[in-house]
């Protein structure tokens, strides 16, 4: 039976343009989606924007625009970027949409009726940049004269020269005191610890999981889920003076998109309930849900989110002492994995407007190429680690791997095959040696793709291409082609073309447009369409005939280092 697979990106704040940090999470999710889809899963992939935030209200005011007009322009800008990169999302979620409001209000009402949401008063600090409440341990002191920052401690006091700031946004959080509603996260302490124990792969990579577990081990606290002073957002169904604050709203986007899944019927948009396909699993439906996030939002996804879902879906079992315990069928309502990307710097420096090193992904990809950006993002450092986007290295890396190793090899195969002037195309038998090499390569490739280790899949592919280039050098078909008997040349070229075809099949998930060009160069028809119809495995096993008729443009251009 086809397995249902659901991958998501964070929904990005609709308060500014898309930058390459967002692109990073989106390209990871898009590549995983493509691979899962072409290899036969019933896959869906969602992204969107997080609109109900104070930040957006502030930005709209600054721009002198009505809030909804501002948000419409942001949504259009986000989809423009993702469409430029041909991101293959199945749904784009806006949290101001009616379908989302209905979902969130249902969820809030249910959790409230259950007694997991209660009224209280919040007094403390709130960072608008993070859209979260802050404690001293989340903040730093900064000396206003030297700009040095150091941990907050009781020994130092805020003064004319010392300020307390958020380390990520470098702004002083607001001091607030207001009536709020709280979510009883403390009810879920035991449940979540047992859930983690039973699901050792819930957070990837392990070291992030250890941080999450250590945080939970120090004891959970209830958290505020609403704001009294905000006017823009989804009203609490049980108190219309309050709107829910970003996280209760934002996280449920993943569910909204399943329960009111967007579908088209004779050009009319309609919504269908796919929650039993992609969200609620069962014995028969072992669906898989993967959230791709950045490390900045890991606690919300790995702690708050499962607990909110447990509350909404009534998960767990309460013992006679009133403690809630995890049970294995709870997994049917929870995500399988939170794939947590690290943060990267650009040329060794944190990306910032003042330094002027913020990369606009569209502009950058137009100057170089989409493939250069994707290749470097996904292969310079493994998902999970922090890394650096070294702009010089990105170009050198692309030239070496794509233009030289891959592109040149393709060119050689094409040019030499055309010289042979074969009437019925280049064909041969995929003998055992060809098969065993491709099987080994494809198995390693698929294993790492299924573990979402995209860097390993790419590294493995470029290692395989190195081997192919060495094979070409040893066989030297540009020499043997001078012989009267062309048998050996045909065999060598067939072997190379077949291996390159296998590389193309595997790299399709990363570079669909370029690999479609490759298939056309090799005279392979309907490949992209067949891949999109889940036929990766069948295509891998086929014995093709290569009808190479045109030299065409090189597959990849080379770029100058500036
Ligand atoms: O947090 N390196 O939205 P956001 C790597 N709306 N990834 C980066 C990055 C960098 N330098 N900068 C940003 C939000 N990102 C919430 C999410 S989800 C229910 C709600 C990526 O616009 C990374 O994926 O601040 C991070 O998690 C995301 O952008 C934050 O986007």
How is the secondary structure organized here?
Layout: E1 4-8, E2 12-13, H1 20-38, E3 42-50, H2 54-63, H3 67-84, E4 91-94, H4 98-113, E5 117-127, E6 132-134, E7 140-143, E8 149-151, E9 162-165, E10 174-183, H5 189-198, E11 203-204, H6 206-217, E12 223-224, E13 226-227, E14 235-236, E15 239-244, H7 246-251, H8 253-259, E16 261-265, E17 268-272, H9 275-279, E18 288-294, H10 298-312, E19 317-318, E20 324-325, E21 337-341, E22 344-346, H11 361-367, H12 370-379, E23 387-389, H13 391-420, H14 432-450, H15 454-475, H16 477-480, H17 487-507, H18 512-521, H19 527-532, H20 536-541
Parallel strand pairs: 1-3, 1-18, 2-3, 3-4, 11-21, 18-21, 22-23
Antiparallel strand pairs: 5-6, 5-10, 7-8, 7-9, 10-12, 13-15, 14-15, 16-17, 19-20
Helix pairs in contact: 2-3, 4-8, 6-10, 11-12, 12-13, 13-15, 13-17, 14-15, 14-17, 15-17, 17-18
The protein binds ligand ME8.
What general outline do the C-alpha atoms trace?
A: globular
Alpha-beta content class = alpha/beta
Helix segment tally: 20
Beta fraction: 15-25%
Mean pLDDT, rounded to whole units? Answer: 93
How far apart the termini lie comes to 52 Å
Detailed description of the structure:
The chain has 562 residues and is an alpha/beta fold. 45% of the residues lie in helices and 18% in strands. It has 20 helices and 23 strands. The strands form seven sheets. Strands 1, 2, 3, 4, 11, 18 and 21 form a seven-stranded parallel β-sheet that branches. Strands 6-5-10-12 form a four-stranded antiparallel β-sheet. A three-stranded antiparallel β-sheet has the order 8-7-9, with no helix packed on it. Strand 14 and strand 15 form a beta hairpin. Helix 12 crosses helix 13, helix 15 runs antiparallel to helix 17 and helix 17 packs antiparallel against helix 18. The longest helix is centred in the last third of the chain and has 30 residues. The protein starts with a strand and ends in a 21-residue tail after the last helix. The mean pLDDT is 93. The site of ligand ME8 has 20 residues, from strand 2, helix 1, helix 7 and strand 18.
